[in-house]
Amino acid sequence: MSVRAAVVRRMDGIDSVRVGQFLVPVGVLVVWQALVGVTSGVAFAGPAATFSALVGGIEAGWLATGLRRTMTELVVAYVLAVVAGLWIGVALGSSDFWSDVFEPILIGTYSIPKVTLFPMFLFVFQLGMDSKIAFGWFHGVFPVAILTMSAMTTVSDEHLKVARSLRLSRWQTFREVIVPSILPGLVIGLRLGFNLTFLGIVLGEMFAAREGLGYTLVEFIAGGQIDRIMAIIVVLVAVAAVVNVGFFALESRLGARERTADIRM
Amino acid sequence: MLELRNLSKTYGLGDDRTSTIVALDGIDLTVEEGEFVSIIGPTGCGKSTLFEVIGGLTDATEGRVDIDGDRVDGPDERIGMVFQDHSTFPWLSVIENVAFGLRMNGVSKAERRERAHEMIDLVGLSGFEDASPTELSGGMNQRVAIARTLVMDPDIILMDEPFGALDEQTRLIIGNELLRIWRETGATILFVTHNINEAVQLSDRIAVMSARPGRFKTIVDNDIPRPRDDDTMSTEAFNDLVQRLWTELKSESRKGMEQQEGRTVTAGSEADS
Amino acid sequence: MSEGTLDGATAGLSRTTKVRAVQAAVLVSLVVSVEVGPRTGVVGRTTLIPLSVMVEELLGLLGSGQLTPHIVQTFAAVFGAFALAVVTGVPAGIVLWRVDTLKQVLDPYLLIYYAVPFFAFYPLLISILGLGIAPILAISWGFSVVIVVTNTASGLAQIPEAYTAAGRDMNLSRWQMLRYVYLPASVPYVFTGLKLGFVYALIGTIASEFILAESGLGWLISYNYNNFDVPGMYAAMLLVISLALAVNTVLARVESRLYQRAVA
User: Fold this and answer.
1) What angle do CA B224, B227, B232 make, to 5 degrees?
2) For C30, which residue in chain A has the nearest alpha carbon?
3) N or C: where does chain C have the smaller number of CB atoms within 10 Å of the terminal CB?
């Protein structure tokens, strides 16, 4: 009986959590709507105005154009950051000595406000897409490299010996032994790398660009088009949410140990 | 035929490599085809170094390893290695583990399946093909590791304390299984262990290693008739041989322990610094 | 002690020394290349200026007092946002730790919080609050507060059962439990949250100033960039990066001291 009661209570608990989780976005919408009343007179846009700006932006095409630009930069920068970060992480992580040498250096560089360095990217890559891609890459490569490097310590020596005794090539060892071993830690690095790359791209566009959602955001400040600003924010949040939910699903399937929210520019 | 000739291995210590540890010193041994030879020795005597040198994972400082007169230089397809434990890949199923080496060497899917199934049958794991190694006991995992090595059809199988992490009962059972597999496949096995009973239960000959620097102190023929079963282990001949090996080993074990203690102190001071 | 012992000790010591030496070599070569690269023309002087010129410029600007208002502005924003984050974040963390259902409800949202390119909200805040320190405070607070909340909550959750049992044995009141058991026991973990919160507040402030502002060190970098004042830009950059590294180093030191004490 008591077991049954406990189970029932637990089911109730789960249900109330589920309901609560569902209610959070609803609550955000309600507060958002309420703010419209409070801020009457001040420049502000409620959910309805934002939604119509969103639809209007899609119909007019400026939203799609900006999104396409931002996404192109994001994908290119992210792929490059993953390739480079993996390579650096595996190369340094294969040796205890070199990981000891570079770990504090990487973490130190990771923790400075990278945004201050953006002018250097502009000097080298000019105002076009390249500078944003390079800047996004610069943001994303650190978490991928750092988490790959620390995941490399989980690769078992026995497994590497098995690989050598079976005469695997370097590539086979990487693909068949190292990658599966580091995968749980690696996906966390991939997620943080994505988030930071995204942040870097948007920051870069906000500061100096002629296209992209970040650029459009700053453009609309001057015109006071707050509904459009909020429409862009909704799109950016949606992209981040969808990608991250995908990563979370992957992480729990792979049994990643900790879900860290730590993120630094 | 596996021949070890004057194998020596020296490790350098410190930055300038002026101080050295002699792990192996002039190891000579010939293992005939189909023979089962065990190497026993105290902890830290260089057994595992010898295992890695023969398997081509570590280069010898001096001497050579030959198979049928042909030099072994690096990991060799004629040699299969079975490691201590935790060597199965937890991200692959049992059958994928067993077929792993075949897949890496470009064997077709159909042939992989067939040969892997055969080996899984041989080691007594039928029905567990799709299980994950994480669901299996230590003994079953070592069967997977043995099958993964056997499937490559090596001329010589090297085993480095493959049952070291198992409890005594499991060790006895899987030891008998190994003898059956050895009989059925006609493989040549070189078996490293620190367990005297295990060596006597399994092998045709037993090489006793000295404490560092590792040398063969003596090589003893094991004439106890086969097939050997659980009853064999209570016979006088068995116990005599165990006793004789223990006498050979005792002084070396003491020396080995003293060396170990020296090293433990070293490790402590390293952690302090 | 045998001879082997001494060997081992020196081998261990020399490895740490070696790591330090190589680290120093990497950093020195980085510094040297920033100095020598532009001097020898390997890197154009319009892209990068020698480190010594940056330092000289920075010292000149600091001496003339030109930087003072920007330093004051940035520090005010960083400390203001951080103080707000502590005042709101620590109590929120305590509530989250106490009310488990609330924590479970908010967990997925807290995790996804930092996934959003946060500075996208900055133009919105400017539109609402106008240009000035207010939107910067708001965005830096928002960027910093959640890491304080989550670390406070998880830090309190990590307190060993034995401590709370001992506290209950002594019949401590709820407030006494919080004051004498929970808070002291969770200090190192909560401090990690505060450390990250401070770093985030710093990043939030610099980045907002950099995008759009009227003053501040971040603004100075972008202003000098836009006005082709390369030495002035690099001087401000050097100041910000040095500050960030110094803050990180000091906070990390304090943190490791706290963890050592917690273990001992």
Assistant:
1) 55
2) A105
3) C
Domain with C12, as residue range(s), is 3-44
B73 touches chain A (CB under 8 A): no
Q: Among B98, B118, B121, B122, which Cα is nearest to B183's?
A: B122
Mean pLDDT computed over every residue of chain C: 85
Question: What ipTM does this complex have?
Answer: 0.85
Chain C partners (3+ C-beta pairs within 8 A) = A, B
B161: three-class secondary structure by DSSP: coil
Answer yes or no: do C23 and C110 share one domain. Answer: no
Nearest to B19 among C7, C9, C13 (CB): C7
Question: Which chain C residues touch B266 with a CB distance below 8 Å?
Answer: 4-5, 7-9
Cα C18 from Cα A100, distance rounded (Å): 10
Domains identified in chain C, total number? 2
Residue C21 shares a structural domain with residue C124:
no
* CA B139/CA B164 separation, integer angstroms: 10
Q: Which CATH superfamily is domain A45-254 in?
A: MetI-like (1.10.3720.10)
| Cβ-defined contact of C120 to A97 (cutoff 8 Å) | no
C14 part of contact set with chain B, CB < 8 Å: yes
What pLDDT is stored for residue C236 in this prediction? 92
Q: The domain that contains B169 carries what CATH number?
A: 3.40.50.300
Count chain A–chain C contacts defined by CB atoms under 8 A.
Answer: 165
Could you give the percent of chain C with pLDDT greater than 90?
32
pLDDT at B117 over 90: yes
Measure in Å the smallest separation between the Cα of C20 and chain B Cα atoms: 14
pLDDT above 80: residue C198: yes
Task: Answer positive or negative: Cα dihedral of C15, A104, A160, B171.
Answer: positive
**Residue B169 gets which letter from DSSP?**
H
Q: Which of C4, C12, C18 sits opposite B273 (nearest CB)?
A: C12
Strands B188-193 and B79-82: unpaired
Question: Does B266 score more than 50 pLDDT?
Answer: no
